[in-house]
Amino acid sequence: MQKITPFLWFDKEAGEAAKFYTSVFKGSKIKKLEKLENTPSGTVEVATIELLGLELRLMSAGPVFKFNEAISFEVQCKTQKEIDYYWGKLSADPKAEQCGWLKDKYGLSWQIVPTVLNKMLKDKDKKKVARVTEAFLQMKKFDIEGLQKAYRG
């Protein structure tokens, strides 16, 4: 059992979101889906899911809180195909797309990041780092080939 579990509050879509997220991340599963009756906010739906080994809890309890960019989930991707897959499945608001960040249909923020970017940004050659940074600041969805081209100069 993990000691800290992210807990996401939805208006009324926790069950739907649980099914959606577990369909996007292969090998993931819904561990528990239950309804709690007679709570102060009425019937509350709570889902426990596992996404690629990370347990999350999702709850439907009314429109009290909304997601914002202060919380996001980062997905490390080894290939452009993987970036394209997650971007295509998760992105639902083209206006929110920037520098590898997107928002899904529930308003939750995700960062779809190539693993190679971290290595590039840690390079000791400041000119390489500056070129990569300038390149990715122009991108919505990360383009590994474009980042590598900027890195090489």
CATH superfamily of the largest domain: 2,3-Dihydroxybiphenyl 1,2-Dioxygenase, domain 1
Please give the alpha-carbon distance between the first and last residues. Answer: 46 Å
CATH architectural name of the largest domain: Roll
Number of strands: 7
Q: What's the average pLDDT?
A: 95
The CATH topology of the largest domain is given as: 2,3-Dihydroxybiphenyl 1,2-Dioxygenase, domain 1
Q: Which quaternary structure do these chains form?
A: single chain
Stretches where pLDDT is under 50 for at least 5 consecutive residues are none
Shape: elongated
- The strands making up the biggest β-sheet line up spatially as 1-4-3-2
Q: What's the helix-strand series? A: EHEEEEHEEHHH
How would a crystallographer describe the biggest sheet? 4 strands, mixed
Q: Helix count?
A: 5
Q: What percent of residues are in strands?
A: 25-35%
> SS-based structural class?
alpha/beta
CATH class call of the largest domain: Alpha Beta
What features would you highlight for this structure?
7 strands; three-stranded mixed beta sheet; 5 helices; alpha/beta; Signal recognition particle alu RNA binding heterodimer, srp9/1; 2 domains; four-stranded mixed beta sheet; 33% helix; 153 residues; 31% strand; 2,3-Dihydroxybiphenyl 1,2-Dioxygenase, domain 1
Q: What does it look like?
A:
The model has no long low-confidence stretch (mean pLDDT 95). 33% of the residues lie in helices and 31% in strands. With 153 residues, the protein is an alpha/beta fold. The chain is built from five helices and seven strands. The strands form two sheets. Strands 1-4-3-2 form a four-stranded mixed beta sheet, with helices on one face. A hairpin with a 5-residue loop joins strand 6 and strand 7. It has two domains: 54 residues, Signal recognition particle alu RNA binding heterodimer, srp9/1 (2-Layer Sandwich), CATH 3.30.720; 81 residues, 2,3-Dihydroxybiphenyl 1,2-Dioxygenase, domain 1 (Roll).
